[in-house]
Structures are given as C-alpha cells and as structure tokens.
C-alpha cells in the first residue's frame, strides 16, 4: 500500500506543477475542480493501460521485469527532473479551455502509462491502485490551482523535480529488492 501511495504522489507531481501554472493565470473560479477532474481521470486511466500492457508482455519478459520497471521509472523520473529545470509550457497558455485541459491531461499522464507497468510487480490490486492514483492526482491538482493563485509559479518546477526524484528512487528500489 505504501508503494502505491508513493507512486501516486510522484505521478501526480506533473499535474500538480501544471495546475500551479494554471492557477497563476488569474480567474480560477471552477478551475480547481476542472483541473482535478481532467488530470485525475487521465492519471487513473493511463496507469491501468500500462498495467494491462505489462501483463500482456510479462510472460515473455518475466526474468527482466525488474530491469524494465527500473529503466522506465528512471527515464520518466529523469524526464520530470529535466522538465522541472526547464521553463514550463504553462506560460504559453492563453486561454484555459476544455480542449486545452484535455491536451494537458493527456500530456501529463503519458508518463503514468509507462509507470503503470510497475503495477505488475506490486502485490496490490491494480484497480484500487489506479483509483488511488486518480484521487491523489485530483487532490493535488485542485490544491495546485489554489497554490498557483496565491503564490504564482515559484513552486511549479520544484514539484516536478520532487516527483521525478521519487520515481527514480522507486526504480532503484525495484532493481535492488
């Protein structure tokens, strides 16, 4: 259970960082709920797709599954750290439309699909894990919009770097244990 919660928090950091950027735009009436729903839904769905793909190939790659999980989490975490050190795309967003929210939700959850492969290695119900990931992302996204409204974007990159480091550490744990 602990590993799933840590994974959920780490995966939600992309959406949290984007939500902070969105909240800093100004009028946030209803934006926290919208961001939570869009990001939470996609962050719950994508790991499940990754889990199903992992289950499909697990028989072929069972001997290498820990290495694959390590490599995927290392790549995803490294990408998040790199993006956290770069300028965010949120600065380029002019209007927060449903189409824009959909694109952001897909973009922030692609990594979660790859991380879903690691769910095949956990002794935990994958449906419950995906629900926990979605609810956690919903909460972090909602709070991210509120934080962005009050503080601007100074916390945005730090959240993404934190999530990336946690995913890298989880990958190392899969390799060692």
Give the helix proportion (percent range): over 70%
Largest sheet: none
**Termini separation:** 16 Å
Instruction: Count up the helices.
Output: 6
SS strand fraction: under 5%
Integer-rounded radius of gyration: 16 Å
Report the uncertain regions: none
Number of domains in the coordinates?
1
Using the alpha-carbon principal axes, give the shape. globular
What structural category characterises the helix and strand content?
Answer: mainly alpha
Global mean pLDDT: 81
Helices and strands, in N-to-C order? Answer: HHHHHH
Number of strands: 0
Task: Note the main attributes of this structure.
mainly alpha; 79% helix; 177 residues; single chain
Explain how this protein is built.
The chain has 177 residues and is mostly helical. It has one domain. The protein is 79% helix and 0% strand. The protein has six helices and no strands. The protein has helices spanning 2-23, 31-61, 65-85, 98-115, 126-151, 156-176. Helix 1 (2-23) packs antiparallel against helix 6, helix 2 (31-61) runs parallel beside helix 4 and helix 2 (31-61) runs antiparallel to helix 5. The model has no long low-confidence stretch (mean pLDDT 81).
Give a brief rundown of this model.
By secondary structure, the chain is an all-alpha fold. The protein is 79% helix and 0% strand. It has one domain.
Task: Present the secondary structure layout.
Blueprint: H1 2-23, H2 31-61, H3 65-85, H4 98-115, H5 126-151, H6 156-176
């Amino acid at each position: 259970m602990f590993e799933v919660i840590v994974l959920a928090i780490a995966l939600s950091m992309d959406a949290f960082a984007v939500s902070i950027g969105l909240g800093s735009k100004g009028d946030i009436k209803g934006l926290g709920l919208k961001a939570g729903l869009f990001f939470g839904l996609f962050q719950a769905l994508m790991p499940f797709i990754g889990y199903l793909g992992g289950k499909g190939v697990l028989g072929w790659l069972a001997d290498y599954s820990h290495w694959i999980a390590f490599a995927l989490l290392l790549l995803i975490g490294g990408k998040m750290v790199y993006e956290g050190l770069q300028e965010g795309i949120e600065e380029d967003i002019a209007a927060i439309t449903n189409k824009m929210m959909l694109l952001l939700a897909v973009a922030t959850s692609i990594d979660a699909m790859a991380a879903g492969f690691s769910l095949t290695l956990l002794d935990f119900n994958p449906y419950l894990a995906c629900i926990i990931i979605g609810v956690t992302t919903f909460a972090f996204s909602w709070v991210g919009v509120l934080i962005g409204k009050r503080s601007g974007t100074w916390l945005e990159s730090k959240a993404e770097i934190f999530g990336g480091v946690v995913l890298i550490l989880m990958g190392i744990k899969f390799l060692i244990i």
